Every structure is written in structure tokens, then in C-alpha cells.
User: What shape does this take?
Amino acid sequence: MFFSRRKAELLKPLLPALEWERVQAYAMTDAGFGTDPFGTDPDLLGFGYALGYWLHRHYFRVVSTGHHHIPARGAAVIAGNHSGVLPFDAVMLAVDVFRYTDPPRLMRFMVDYFVYQVPFLGVFFRSLGQMPGTRANFDGLVQEGHIVGLFPEGAEALGKPAAQRYELYPFSHGHVELAARHRVPVVPFALVGAEEQMTMITDLRPLARALRLPYFPITTTFPWFGPLGLLPKPVRYFINYGEPITIDPAALDSVDVRTTEVERVRDAVADLIQRGLEQRREYGSSSA
Amino acid sequence: MAETKKIPTLKAAALVNPQEQATPGTLREGPRRIFVAGARRRVAIHLIERLLAAPEVDLVLGVDRGPCPPALLGCDPERFVFATADLSKRRQVDNLFLLDKLRERPLDSVVHLAFQGNPRGYGVESHEFNVNAARHLLDASLRHGVAKYLFLSSDAVYKIGPRTDYKVREDGELNLDPDVHPILRDTIDAEFMCRAKMDRPDCEVMVLRPSGVFGGGVLSGVNLLFESTPPVLPVGFDPMINPTSKERLARDLMLSIFLHGKGVYNLAGTTVGPLSKFLEERGIRPIRVPGPALGLVNRMQRMLGMTRYHAGFHPKRLFFSLVLDDTRFDRIFRANAHSVLALSRSPDPGG
Assistant: This one.
């Protein structure tokens, strides 16, 4: 076996007993060998959740609101801002959704292809239910009633320079088109905090190309402190979920409608970012 | 005035009233007379045994280059005929359709299983055999009024990589890389020949793409890998697969012969899972080597007789998932298995 149950339980002590039970009770379609058709492995899910839970609770000390906007059942698209050089924001978001939904819902992200070329990492991501970002994968996940996470700004937004903090890049249209096609709502979210976890100085594109990476960050700590420099600062995350947006099916036929719908989602995310920033200021002043 | 038989053309095919075409998944009328090319293959032997057990089958003509396989020697000579022929020779292929036994009632189905898919020693001769056999068999079938033509292709025709979908449908991207192994190139060419004839109204042309096939002596990639001592896999990768078995494949082939339907279909097993779990289930312990060393280790294993698996044939196979989506075949054929008398008695052997 690629990852034995015994190894998967190594991180069990990081989880409260009740949370461990929730992971174990997570209902999954068994495709024959304990994994679902997407390759989600319940053993590895426990391992991943234990690690993520610890980061969520003790490292990033996530404060989140608006969980009631996440559908308790059925498919939905969750779309929001992306930042932080390394995608800890996606991990925290997935943990947050799993932690605060009952029964727990596993968020499936559309992940960059390069992840699946890296030994162990690709299998790890797949075992946690995260899929390469293809249309067929999105269709399959939505048809099976899963929550699909998307970052419409794209992976480039991870490397936002400090001067552009909390400014949204243009949103791609894919999430709106897919949501319209499957008649599923888009739940906007905003994550505040990740922008401060690392400060990008520059992106070494030639090196990134040579290593087949989407980017190669030079930050204030990396590569100067070696791999340790990739460790994010333990900043507090604020996650806000907004009201689900029903996408006009006409977005499938008209570029203008689609653009308008994309702007609706983008505006909702921008509002939530402002709310998150205010929340952080209030939180800072109250804790001081 | 004597009626002259019109040769159907593509234009004629387009003009055929769709209501006159048989509904896919319905039972073909009358007894079957089936030509099985490549009768020495394990899957073919299994298929022929199943066909002969079916009362609806009138005659099976098994053809291959070598002698009749021992497993088929005891078959009823009234219902089974074995012929040795070189299918790459047009005249020899034509002669098979003109056998005395077929004069009264000609063949109505052709199953092309003779494609040589073993990468070992695949040279010009094998390439020419595959290309010519595919062409001559299809041409002869259409000329002699065969109503059903099946070509058993492979799942290796699909392009795989980190972008592969979690389930690959029949419209998935094909591996048209010019550097691809010649067998794959020839397989895709043979598929295209079939696809070019799929609109003919008088013959239902089907291309079947099975996932890896398990079964003693079967020359499929996954089977050869599992028969290796030990299987060698790349470290850090564990692709998802859904292999089928030779029993299930033979059953699917029977369904394809007996029921109406044409087009390209995936055939897969019922179980989807990581490769490591399939190995574990069979008590096989693989050894893992760094990905770049896989080809070299595999070559050494082959030299030492430890494996017949050829890692260079489909190099990404052990790195990236390939799970076939066969819901189309399920919906049209397996869902109507009850209408085939012989199959209604036997359960689906599963994956």
C-alpha cells in the first residue's frame, strides 16, 4: 500500500477525538478499494485533516464567519481570492469548510497540473480528493454533488507583490460558465491574512521554467534561510463566506452576460475582503 | 430485369431514415455466424468457448497464423472451423469468406482480435501485418455483406499525463505524439480506418477500447506487469486504474456481437482503485525505483527474464492515472444483456 493506515494515524494525536470520529464517518462512494472514483483515500484524508486542523487552530488561528452560506448538500462552486506565495489559503479554506459543516463536506479544488508531476505530492493531493483542473474533472465532481473550490484569479495571484495586497486580479470566466452549465450556485469567499504570510520580492521565471514550476518565488526569507524560508509567518486568517450567487443561465450564450456575472462574483469577493480587513482591525484593537 | 445490388455510399448512408436503423442495444435477429481473427489469443479462446456455448451461434470461424490452439481442438466441428491464414494477404482474407461452409449462409459478424500488440520484437513485419490485416479484414467484411465488424483496440491510444481526467471518455484526447511507440501508431491508424466506415448503413462498425486485461497468459500491459517477479514501479506515483478481466472482456465482446450498436466504446472493469491496492490484493510486493531509472531497470529485468512487461511501450502508464469511463457501453450493451439468451444465464464476471 502506498500509505499504510498505521502511518496515516501518526498525526491522530493532533485531532480531538470528536474530529477524528467526524473524519472516519465521512461518507464516501467506495469505488472498490476504499477510495472514491476520484482517488480520495479515507486514511490519508485523516492524516491531511489532522495536519490541517492543527495549522487551522494553532498556527493560523483562523476566524471565519458565514458558514451557513455553504450548502449542506448538493454541488456548489466556492470562489474567492488567492494569495500568499504558497497555497496555505486553500488548505485552510478546505479545513474550515470540513470543520464547520455538519455532516462534514470535503472541498475539492481544481489544482494546477504541475502538482501531479511531483512524486508523492501528486498522490497526496489526489488522496485528499483534490483534482487536476480539467473540465471533465469539474463536471464529474459537480455531478457527484461535491463542493468545488476555484481561484478565478489563477495561480499567478499567489505571487502578488506587496504593493498589490488585497487587490483582485481579473477573474477568469470558467467558474461562472461551469456554474451556469450545471445550475449550481457560486459561494464567494474572501480570505484575509494570507497576503502577509510571505512577501514576494520577485519571481525567477527562467528557473521556474527549468524546474517545470508555475513560478519560483524569491521572498524576504526564501531562499536565504533554505527550506525553512518557505515557512509562512503565523498570521491570523479571517475567512468570510458570502451569500450564494445564482448565475444567470444566459451566461452560456452571451459573453456580455457572462462578463456581468463574473463581475458580480468579483464584486462580492471584493466586499468580503473589505469586511475581512475591518474584522481584522476590530480584532486587533479588541485583543490589544 | 434482374435487380442489381447497389453498393452503399456515404451519401446513401446520410440519407438513410434514422427510423429504419436498428435501435442500439436491441438484439440482432437470427443465428450468428462469426469470424474470429486472432483465434489463438487467450481472449479469443475464451470468447470462442462462450460463443459455442450459446445456442444462437450457428458457426464460428477461428483464424490465425499458427495451428489451432489445443483448448479448441475438441470443439464441435459442425459449429467450429479453424483456418490457418495470413491475414495480411488480401487474397487469403478473401478466400476465408468464400469457404464452402459459408456458401449457403455467409458470415454476419467479424471480430478482429489479431492485432499484434506485443512490443517485444515489433518490427517492420509486425507493423505491415497489423496495417494490412486491419485494412483487408475491414474491406473484405464490407464487400461480403458482414453486418457487424468489431475491432479490439486498446486503452493505450489515450494520451495520459498530469492533465488526464479522472475518467476518460471515448472522446478523450488520443496519443498522437509522433514519437509514440509504433504499435500505438498502428492501433490508432487501424481505429481511424474503422471510424472512416462507421457511417455505412449496412455494417455496424465498432471499435472497443478495453482497459488493461487480467487473466492467465493474457498479453496486456497490466497483466504482464503483475506477472513480473517482482513488478517495478516508480517511487512516489500510484496511478488509478480500472482493469477488466478476460472473462468480462469476452462477455462484453459477446454483447457487442449480439446487440445492435456501432461506434467507439470503452470497456473497463467494475473496480477503480490505485495500482498499489490491486497489487496488494493479489499479495504482490512491488519494488520501487526512482522514475528516471524505471526504463533501465525494466530493460535489465527483461534481459534476465524476470518480466515481459515493456515500460517503454506506454512510458507514462505507471506514473499517471488512466481510468476508462465505460458508461456508454454499460447503458447500451450491458443493460440489455438479459436479451441475449446465453448471457442472461451467466452473471457478469465483474472486474
In short: The interface with chain A takes residues 161-167, 169, 234-238, 240, 270-274, 276-278, 280-281, 291, 320-321, 323, 351 of chain B (CB under 8 Å). Residues 27-218+244-273+324-344 of chain B form a domain with the Rossmann fold fold (CATH 3.40.50.720).
